[in-house]
Fold Conserved oligomeric Golgi complex subunit 6.
Amino acid sequence: MATQLAPGLARKVKKVLETRADTPETIACLKGLSEFYGENTPAARRGLRSSIERRGLDINREFLEASGQAQEALAVVDAQLEGLLSGCRRIANVLDKSRERTGNLLDETARFNNNLAKIEERKKMLETFLVDYQLTDEEISALRTDDQITEKFFSALARVQEIHGNCRQLLRTHHQRAGLELMDVMASYQENAHERLARWVQGECKTLAEEDGPDVPDLLTRAMTALKSRPVLHRYCIEEVSRTRHNALFRRFISALTKGGPGGVPRPIEVHATDPRRYAGDMLGWLHQAAAGEKELVAALLATEGDDGDEEKNGDEEKDGDKEKNGGEEHKEGAGVDEEEEAADPEAVLDRILEGVCRPFKVRLEQALNASPTALVAYQLANLLDFYRETLGAIVGKDASLVATVEECRASAARTFEDQISRRAAKLREKPTRPPDTLAPPPFVAETVSLVRELLQARSDAVSGGDLDETYDAVGAVLDPAVEACERGAGAIAEALRPEESGGAGPTPATTNAAGTVPPAYTARWAKEAYLLNCLNAMAAALGDFPGASAARDSLNSRVASLADTIADDEAGRILRSSGVAEVRELIALYQGQRTERGAMSRDPALELGVVGSALDKLVDEVSASPEPVPAFDEVLNPRTRVDLRGTYVGKIIEAYTLVYMAVLDPNNGYRDAKSAIRHGPDALGVLLN
C-alpha cells in the first residue's frame, strides 16, 4: 500500500506539477536565477531562499543609489526653474511698465493702420475709376496720332463711347460735376476722332472710285457705321460716296460704249449700233450688272444688313448722355433727322449713283429709235425695255431715275411701233390693192400675217411675260387696217359688178385684170364675201400657233362664221324666193306667232293647199333640174369653210321645206288630203341636196 503524502506537501507537489516551465514568466525567473545561482548542490538548494532575498536586497540598494543621483539632478532643475520664474516675474513687471508707457503709441499705430486700410481701398477705387472713366495712353495715341485707321482706332472709339455711357450713370450720383467734366473730355475725343474718321472715309471713297467693282473694306463699313452718331459728317460722307461713284460709273459706261474692255475684249457696245435690238440689249445688260454691283457696294458701305449691336447701344447711350448734359434740349437737332434718314436711304444713294448713266443711255436709245426701225424691231425693243424696267425696279426701286428713264424709252419705242403701224395703215388706205383674179388673199395680207406672227413670236420669246392686253392691242393694231383694206377691196368687187344703169360706175382699172375685163371669179354672187372669207381665214390661220392670240383669233373666226352664214342665207333665200317657198314660210310663221282659230291658215288664199304644194314641188324641181344642186363655192379657198358653207346652205333649205311641210300636215291648220297635194317629202329633198 502506497504511502500518502501530507496534505500540505501534496498541495505543493501538485502545484509544482501543474506549473508550466515554458511560460515567459517562468523562463524570465529561471534566467534571472541563473545569474547568481551557481552549482546545483544540496547546500545551494537549501540556501536558495536566502540567496534570492539577498539578491533582491542588492537590487534595492542599487536602485536607491541611482535614485539619489536623480534626486540631486531634480534639485538642480528645480533651482533653475525658480530662477526662470523669478526672471519671468521681473520681465512681466518690466512689460507692464512698458505697456503703460507705450499705450498712446499703440493707439496711434492702430489709427494709422485704419487710415492705411482706407487709403488702400481708395487706391483700388481710383484704379477702378481710371479703368472705367479714363483712356490709356495707347488709346489716346490711336485716336490722335496714328496715320492710318486701324482696328485699334475703332477699339479706342468704342472705349470712348463706353466711358461716355459710364459718365451717364455717374450723373445719377452725387458726383455730377466729375461726370460732366469727364463727358466734356470724352466728347472732345469723340469729335476729333469723328472728324479724322470723316477725312479718312473721303480718301477711301476716292480710292473706290478708281475701281470697277470694288470690295468694300470692313474698316470702311465700320467707319460709316460709327459716323452715324454724327449726322452732318455721315451725310457729307454719303454725298462724297454718291459723287465719286456717280462719276466713276459714268466714265465706265462711256468707256464700255466707245472703248470696250481691256484689250478690246469685250468689244465696244457701239459696234452693234446698227442692230438696235442688240445695241439696246447690250446697254441694258451692262446697266443691270452695274446696278447690281453698285447696290452691293452701297449695302455693304451703309451696313444695311444690320449694324453692330454694341455700337448702336453705345450710340444710344451717348445720345442719352447728351440729352442730360444739354438739359433736354436735344430737339434742336431734330430738324435734320428726316433729312439725314433720306440722305442715308440706300435706294436714294443708289439712285444718285446711277443717275449719271441715264442721259447717255437715253440719248443713244433715242438715236436708235430715230433711225426709223421696223415695226417688229420697235416692238422687240419695247418688250426688252419692259423686261429690264421690271428687273431694274426690283434692284434699285420702282421710283428710281434709271427705272423712269427705261420707262420713257419703252414708251418711246411703243410710240415708234405705233407710228410704223399707223404709216402702214395709211399706206393701205391711200393705195387700195386690187383683189387677185382668184379672190385669193392679196400680198399685203401675207405681209400682215408675217408681221403678226413675228410680233407674237417676239412676245413668246420675251424673257418676261409682259402685259397680254398690250399684246392684243399690238396684234389688233396690225390686223385692223389689213381687215379694213380687205373690206374696201371687197367693196370694189361689188362696185365692179353693179350695172351702170343703176348708177354704178361700172368696171374700173382697180377692178379689172390686165386684159381690161372683169375676172370670172368676180362674177360669183358671193365674190365679195368669198374674198373677205379668204383674207380672214388666212389671218386666223396665222394666229393658230400662239395661245396668247386667242382673243384675236376668236374674233376673226367669229367674222368668218358670220360671213359664211350670210353667203349661205343669201343663196338659200334666192332659191326659196324663186320657188315661192320663202313667201309661204313667212306667212306660216306669221300665223304660228299669233293665236288664230282652228283652220284659219287653210282659208287664207295665199296659203291654199294648191299654192303651198305647188311651191314645195317647184323647189324640188328646181333643185333636181339644177346641174349643181348645192353651189360648190369654189371661190372660198379654205376647204373647211367651204364644207361648212355647203352644209349651212343645205340645212337652211331643208329647214324651210320641213317647216312648210309640217305646217300643212298639222290638223289644226285645216288642210285635208295634204299628202296627196305634195309629191315629195323632206327626205326626198335631202337626198337631192346631199
